[in-house]
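Appendix B. One record, verbatim.
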Amino acid sequence: MHSQLSRRLTRMAVYAMVSFNVILLTINGVVMIIVPYTWYELVPGVTDTGFFNQHFVRDIGMIQVLLGLAFLFGMSMPSRRIDFWLAATVWLSAHALFHFWEVAVCISPVSAIPRDFVGVTLPALVGILLCLWALSQGVRDNSIEGTAPLPSRI
């Protein structure tokens, strides 16, 4: 009974984290693509990073949409889950680390860390947790869900 409850709570947490990244990243990306100047003006701190460049905003918007879709596809394709989630998480983590680096070298103020947390750092942390969970499922089952173990001879 306790184990079943634990699995159910874990599943709910995984769905919540995936939903957070899918919704946040996809909506943010769509807004960046459709109304880049509005996005540039409304998102706190963006105007402090330099002049408006609609091409750049739309480029990053496309990346955001693809990242959101990677989390969605990973949830719906268990055998490829770690591939999708890890690829997206690497980019999100690099992006978050870049924001921390900008603070460390005084390009951005320390106040940028909490300001950017929900839109930059949290999606990366969620991705890391999801990847760790997905990897733990593979370790427990000796394979990632839906994939066969590698043959002993290649």
